[in-house]
Design a protein that fits this description.
The chain is mainly alpha-helical. It has 3 domains: 8-37, no CATH class; 74-176, Cyclin-like (Cyclin A, domain 1, Orthogonal Bundle); 187-272, Cyclin A, domain 1, CATH 1.10.472.10. The protein contains 10 helices and 3 strands. The protein has helices spanning 65-96, 108-123, 131-146, 152-158, 163-176, 191-197, 205-220, 230-241, 247-254, 258-272, and strands at 14-17, 22-25, 31-33.
């Protein structure tokens, strides 16, 4: 290690100023630039402490009861923020999906979703999942249990969440919670909303709904109906009952692809032995 010598008086006594990075001779007061290797390993007292607050303002490590208190405080703050976020998300879903606004108490769907989320919190199964995404998945599971016909795509879009993410968490919920008993989505519950969205005359809407409902009942009894999208089945039944309706309009109103609509129409015509109603 090379010793420092003042260029003016050859003294070896000096004092370092880290703020301006200068070395000052104690004998004559001559200032010179500090070498680069000096001060690299040193840290300022004001920069000590990490994000988890393991050190205090003086740089001393926190231990014992004080550390446990800080950990508990941080956990309580995070859980409170999560519960607030969950409640706000459920209220938004009630307004946008169920049209249930202006009420202080929760809708039965939201209450059921809260119970699902509380169970997941106790089991710590959804701890790493996003709060909004798992709230949307629990809301969809509650809708399926209470037999309210809502689509997971519609729920995810209302909260600007990735649909695939919500579907993945919902499937994870079904595996982790065997007590969940989602009912089969009935295509007949989707008829009224689709008919009002399509170009069907108001006088004929009730007749079309009755004809399409009977057609769906016959189709669901056959083995060819297994694995079919309920929205696609309802849209195909309406298409077969209404003259002048295009498959493109049926796919846009139901949110199902045009190829799926065309495939379902071929199968329903073949199985039910009909050409048009």
């Amino acid at each position: 290690m090379t010793t420092f010598k003042c260029s003016n008086c050859n003294s070896t006594e000096f004092q370092d100023d880290l703020t301006i990075r200068e070395r000052i001779c104690k004998k004559c007061g001559m200032a010179s630039s500090m070498p680069e290797e000096v001060g690299e390993g040193r840290k300022s007292r004001f920069r000590l402490g990490t994000k988890t607050n393991t050190k205090d303002s003086l740089g001393r490590t926190i231990g014992g009861k004080q550390q446990t208190i800080q950990k508990k405080r941080k956990y309580v703050e995070s859980t409170d923020q999560n519960t607030i976020k969950i409640n706000l998300t459920l209220k938004k879903l009630e307004e946008k999906i169920l049209s249930y606004s202006g009420h202080e108490e929760f809708h039965p769907v939201s209450e059921r979703a809260l119970t699902i989320l509380k169970k997941s919190k106790k089991r710590k199964s959804l701890a790493t999942k996003e709060t909004v995404a798992k709230t949307c998945a629990a809301f969809y599971a509650a809708c399926r249990e209470i037999n309210i016909s809502k689509e997971i795509r519609q729920i995810a879009k209302s909260q600007n969440v990735n649909e695939k993410r919500v579907r993945m968490i919902y499937r994870f919920m079904l595996r982790e919670f065997p007590e969940l008993e989602p009912k089969i989505d009935d295509p007949k519950l989707k008829l009224q909303k689709m008919i009002t969205g399509m170009s069907v005359k108001p006088d004929e809407q009730l007749k079309v709904q009755i004809k399409a409902g009977k057609m769906i009942e016959k189709f669901l009894k056959l083995p060819e109906s297994s694995g079919r999208n309920p929205s696609g089945v309802a849209a195909c039944a309406i298409y077969l009952c209404v003259k002048g309706l295009t498959q493109n309009e049926a796919s846009e109103c139901s949110g199902v692809s045009l190829s799926t609509i065309a495939n379902n129409v071929k199968i329903m015509r073949k199985v039910l032995k009909i050409n048009s109603c």
